[in-house]
Amino acid sequence: MIIKEGDTFDYSLNNGTPATIQVTSTVGDKVAYKHIHGKTGAGRITDDYFQQLVNNGYFQKQ
Fold it and tell me: Does the pTM exceed 0.85?
């Protein structure tokens, strides 16, 4: 799956609360995102790890 700026993904917080992140940039092998529902904050992880989370069903593309 190609991940691009603006993509949104649903997931569940540890307590089961639904949450949503939005990809803010993809530069090199990094994916930056911000939380837009469920909690506040932002983060950055490698593209490979992000792909694993999608493939494992943790992040579900909207």
Answer: yes
